[in-house]
Specification:
This protein has 5 domains: 2-37; 51-190, no CATH class; 206-271, SH3 type barrels (Roll), CATH 2.30.30; 286-359, Alpha-Beta Plaits, CATH 3.30.70; 389-477, Jelly Rolls (Sandwich). Helix content is 52%, strand content 13%. The protein has helices spanning 2-32, 39-84, 94-112, 120-151, 158-179, 184-188, 192-201, 203-218, 261-266, 293-304, 342-359, 378-396, 407-416, 472-477, and strands at 226-228, 236-242, 246-251, 256-260, 270-271, 279-287, 317-323, 328-336, 439-440, 446-451, 458-464, 469-470. The protein has a 5-stranded antiparallel sheet. Strands 6-8-7 form a 3-stranded antiparallel sheet, with helices on one face. It has a two-stranded antiparallel sheet with strand order 9-12. Helix 4 runs antiparallel to helix 5 (158-179).
Amino acid sequence: MCDIFGGFGAASASRSVAEAVSASRSVAEAVSGAPDSGILDVAGDASRSAAEAMSGTLQAPSFLGEASLGVLVALALVVALAVGLPRSARGAVRQPIALLLSHLVVLGIDVLLPAASPAHRFVRPLALLLVLASVARSGVLLVLDVVLGRCLSRPLPRIIRDIVQGLALVAVLIAALDAAGVTPGSLLTTSALLTAVIGLSLQETLGNVFAGLAIQLQAPFDVGDWIQFDADPKHIGRVIEINWRATKVITLDDVQIVVPNAMLAKAPISNYTKPQAVARRSVYVAATYSVSPLVVQRIIVDAIHDAFGVVKEPAPSVVTHVFGEYGIEYWVRYYTDQFDKRDRVDGAVRDRIWYALRRAEVEIPYPHRTLEVHEVTEESNARETERRRLERERALRCVDIFRVLSSDEMHRLAELAQRRLYAPGEVIVRQGDESNELYVIEEGEVEVRVHRPGASMTVHLARLGAGKFFGEMALVTGDRRQAQ
């Protein structure tokens, strides 16, 4: 009886529900017959609102679960970053932590909002954007600073870091827009004119970015190098930063110059730090014509070899540069490993040169015009000619074959003789030359060499000093020179 009664009750209940549904249909049909009535629209809106509210209520636990998973991943990356980074670089963890905390705040706001609130459409994509940004920032730092930082010998350039970070943030933004129901491609194709304007406005910026990438790949200079990027000597400085747009250089005057990367990519760059840290410097100094170049060069080299900032290897050197109006100009070349103190090094070298030349009583001439009036007479010319003849005659009397000459003959020979000055290593006569000259050595030494037919080396015969002579055979017989 109980089972039959229960079944009857259930059947009755189902009939009541069916009648209620039928009644509701009748009411709906009756209402629909009244064209001016808004009862049906209100009922429809209410039903849709209820459906959306129920859908939001059903989706909220799913969203919270995904958000919790994102928080755990972001927190794990932050912890790994804090452990892997050195103590001096742990300040970089603050940004991922700030993004994660912002995500939690936005997530709390989403929980407090009513289930049917339309604000969920904006709050939840924002929360997703913040947590993905935290994950991306932590991941980039973990890969670049922890993993690659331990594998590479030097840190990655800043421009590479910025580009990687930028790409990661763009990917995060695209994911957030997609979650919000916005297709990123639709934003770029809405206006061809807007795209053209943006492209033209970014032309110079993109040029600097690609030039910066080329500089990083070719590495013509690094941070800390001393470079010059134009002809102005004031534009020599130490590179302190290479970023995506420009390179920063600081000069000796502590002036910071920001040079666009596109300009550096086109300019000839002088790097004073590569291929080695030792750079050559030069100063120029003049000395009087009255002192031979060999003496002046020896004085200068001895004076600067231990000057401030001058390295011993490569050794300093001096060459005769210009025969000027007021003296001989010498090119002094030396090397220094303190390019940042080059002005002080150059000054110390000049000081040493001045003191050394002053001790040796070698005059440093300067541009000037001196008008001297000398009265030249036949008597003064005759005295000067006689003085020079007597000097040559004294040198000629050292030659044995001339001792048989009379005074008049020696006098005549001295008048025809000429005084010649030769540099060290210079060849006076060559073997095989035709000549009828005899040489008497007044000062210095002469080395006599001969090349034997069939021999690969030159044979050293003798070394002649002051008072000696050579070339007598060519003078007497007119034969070709037998030695050099």
